[in-house]
Amino acid sequence: MLRKGIALAALGLAILAAPAAQAAGGALPPKHVEFSFEGPFGKFDQAELQRGYKVYREVCSACHSMNLMYFRNLGQKGGPFYDAKYKNPNDNPYVKSIAKDYQIKDIDSETGDVIERPGTSADKFPSPFPNEAAARASNGGALPPDLSVMAKARHHGPQYIYSLLTGYKNPPAGLKVGVGQHYNPYMNGDVSAAWSGPHDKVPPGGFIAMAPPLAAGQVTFDDGTKSTLDQQAKDVAAFIAWASEPKMEERKAFGMAAMIYLFIFAGLLYASYRKIWKNVAH
Amino acid sequence: MSGHSNYEPKTGIERWLDTRLPVVRLAYDSMIDFPTPKNLNYWWTFGGILAVCLGIQLVTGIVLAMHYVPHVDHAFASVERIMRDVNYGWLIRYMHANGASMFFIAVYIHMFRGLYYGSYKAPREVLWILGCVIYLLMMATAFMGYVLPWGQMSFHGAVVITNLFGALPVVGEAITTWLWGGFAVDNPTLNRFFSLHFLLPFMIAGVVGLHIWALHVPGNNNPTGVNVKSKEDTVPFHPYYTVKDGFAIVVFLILFATFVFYNPNALGHADNYIPGNPLVTPAHIVPEWYFLPFYAILRAVPDKLGGVILMFGAIAVLFVLPWLDTSKVRSMRYRPTAKLYFFIFLLACLVLGYCGGQLPDNHVIPGLSTFKLGDADLNSMVWLSRVATLYYFAYFLVVLPVLGLTETPLPLPESISEPVLSHPANAPAGAAASPEKRG
User: Per residue in B64-103, pLDDT tens?
Assistant: First the structure.
């Protein structure tokens, strides 16, 4: 009976996994890249998060907002600039100085005039554009998506971000790429309408309005790490993964304690069950 | 709740209360002293597991509602804010989201157990129907709950499902407008879904009370399907089943915790982390996994109204099942032919679930090209769904009614204790009490 149950459960799980596996569409599966935060014991690498934040700030943030992020998040436990000395991330001097570099729109409480003031730890990451129309107008009609939860909004998010950023390719002969468009085999989409080659050999991937954003040496890392395209893409993918799930480390640590508790509890209950039922034929 | 009560109030307060409101007696009779067949296997632990699931959903849901903002402009960000800034909000929200899936895993196992062991047959018809009511309420609750984060799948899922009512002739459009609270899925829709999502779980809790009441009148069915004959056949619920159910519940919680702590988004869809946008339709709109079999039935029918009728019919048929199955033998242990059909039925349900997650035109066997039959290629998910849908209904409407009249069941044991003491295979041939004779 129990064996049958396990077999059924396995079959059930296989069915559950099916819709997720199917949804990738015509894009190539993301490249395999290992991150420090994978697996049940995975943790974010703080140096990597700092480099990733720098890539975001110097490159991505020119077009992409992160509306759910506050400067204080950078200094919270597990964040890129967390310092155990400052339990309250709002007091973290790194975070304060990063925030101060930005001018934030505000209302003068005395006069009611629209003013700009230096940012504080409690401010949100400012958006690069005042509204969606402005964002589209500056980007050839395309809207750069918000990156706050991007690692959760795509299958295999961190691997996908890394693959997309490093995966730009010259379009194969026979593929007509529109003005302001770029070919990327890891982008979701369907390029068959622009393909003049054989029908069964439509190239994978889709068109993306974003030009290849990263290049070797584009960002100078403060810790002396060599600034290759690969390094930048990996670091920014890690940073976005952290921003999407800032409580991941806490979750996994809590999970370990919960698992140990549950296993011990289950063992005790099973022993009690055996003892209580010992004299009952069943 | 029924029958003889062995409760004896021990203290003055208990005696005083017992003559005014015998609530301690009720608890004692239904959870301590309740005589339960001693041969229940682990498939019977899912009732307790489901009670725990409902409790978890209620508690986490009430806390979530303290922080959630039911407005199209704020819902998405408020859910993320819960996970970022509310103390242990990530835990509460992931428990609630995965809890829905766990609830459905448990309820499906519970239902298939009932189907296999004939737990819907007399005198448990009302118990079974109340279970179907709970299942229907669960589906409505889960659907409306999935809309609340207002991601892409939330929004477009709501559009697809509410539009189904538009297929009804004459009144369809009016009903859809009424459901939406306007002329499209918008803020009024979200508001009423939130309100109903808060209400329905308490209705479920109420029907669960009736379900347990209806269970305690005839008592539990058991794997042999043979009625309890004597006190020898039963054990008191406590401690025998509190400990067995308790063990099963904790094992189930380990599975639950694996998802919550290590893969909290595995059962969801990535697109639901994109804020809902009426102007952008996702490439594939897929419901949550627990609705996929019904989604496959819906899409198997080329006609929209026909699909809607079949989809709701797939649930409606469960309500009349006690009168469709003509066999007096409850447990399929003693119905070898029915057992075979049952496992094909289980397979058909899994196949429907698989098809529901695929595009209708996807090939079943990759690379094999066949001919076009009707509106679709024979080697396509849509035809596989049709075959499975046909079997789904045939199982209830043809197999169970006919089989009960034609099959010869195996000899039934004299009592629950008999196969417990000697395995049915070793039982002497003369021991059976002619179960072939149908009443």
Answer: 999 999 999 999 999 999 999 999 999 999 999 999 999 9
Q: Say if the Cβ atoms of B270 and A155 lie within 8 Å.
A: yes
For residues B329 and B321, give the distance between their C-alpha atoms in angstroms, rounded to a whole number: 15
C-alpha A60, offset from chain centre: 13
- Superfamily of domain B32-263, CATH level 4: Cytochrome Bc1 Complex; Chain C (1.20.810.10)
Number of CB pairs, chain A paired with chain B, less than 8 A apart:
125
pLDDT at B439 over 80: no
- pLDDT recorded at residue B3: 61
Domain ranges of chain A: 25-69+124-270
Q: Which of residues 105-134 of A touch B (CB under 8 A)?
A: none
- Spell out which residues of chain A touch residue B384, defining contact as CB-CB under 8 Å: none
Domain ranges in chain B are 32-263, 300-412
B240 and chain A in contact, CB less than 8 A: yes
Give contacts of B 358-377 with A, CB under 8 A: 358-359, 362
Query: Can you give the pTM of this predicted structure?
Result: 0.90
- Give the number of other Cβ atoms within 10 Å of residue A39's Cβ: 11
Residue A206: both structure tokens together: 């889709």
* Closest A-chain CA to B91: A251
* B144 at interface of A, judged by CB pairs closer than 8 A: no
CA triple B259-B265-B270, angle to 5 deg: 160
Closest CA in chain A for residue B246: A269
Structure tokens at A77: 């436990």
Contact status of A278 with chain B (Cβ, < 8 Å): no
How many residues in total does chain A contain? 282
CA–CA dist B216, A67 (Å, integer): 54
Q: The tokens of B277 are what? A: 């946008």
A25-69+124-270 CATH fold: Cytochrome Bc1 Complex; Chain D, domain 2 (1.10.760)
What is the distance between the alpha carbons of residues B189 and B172, in angstroms, rounded to a whole number?
Answer: 17
Question: In degrees rounded to 5, what are phi and psi of residue B131?
Answer: -60, -40
State both tokens at B153: 């799948």
Suggest the residue from A77, A199, A251 to mutate for an interface test with chain B (most B CBs closer than 10 A). Answer: A251
Q: Any chain B CB within 8 A of the CB of A257? A: no
Residue A59 CB contacts under 8 Å (≥ 6 apart), including other chains: A213, A214, A218, A219, A232, A236
pLDDT digits over B152-208, tens only? Answer: 999 999 999 999 999 888 999 999 999 999 999 999 999 999 999 999 999 999 999
Which DSSP state fits A260?
Answer: H
Residues of B in contact with A266 (CB under 8 A): 247, 250-251, 254
DSSP string, B228-252: P-SGGGEEEHHHHHHHHHHHHHHHH
DSSP code, position B71: S
Pairwise CB contact (< 8 Å): A254 & B91:
yes
Residues 12-51 of A with CB under 8 A from B: 12, 15-20, 22-23, 25, 40
Long-range contacts of A164-167 (CB under 8 A, 24+ apart): A164/A208, A165/A212, A165/A213, A165/A214, A165/A229, A165/A232, A165/A233, A165/A236, A165/A237, A166/A31, A166/A214, A166/A229, A166/A230, A166/A233, A167/A28, A167/A31, A167/A205
Residues A40 and A258: their CA atoms lie apart, in Å, by 13
B93 close to A (CB below 8 A): no
Q: Which of residues 12-71 of B touch A (CB under 8 A)?
A: 38-39, 41-43
Q: What ipTM did this prediction achieve?
A: 0.89
Which residues of chain B make contact with A8, given a CB cutoff of 8 A?
A: 346
Inter-CA distances, B54 with A226, A277, B130, B237, B290, Å: 53, 28, 16, 21, 16
Which residues are within 8 A (CB) of B391 and not within 5 positions of it... i.e. 6 or more apart? B344, B345, B348
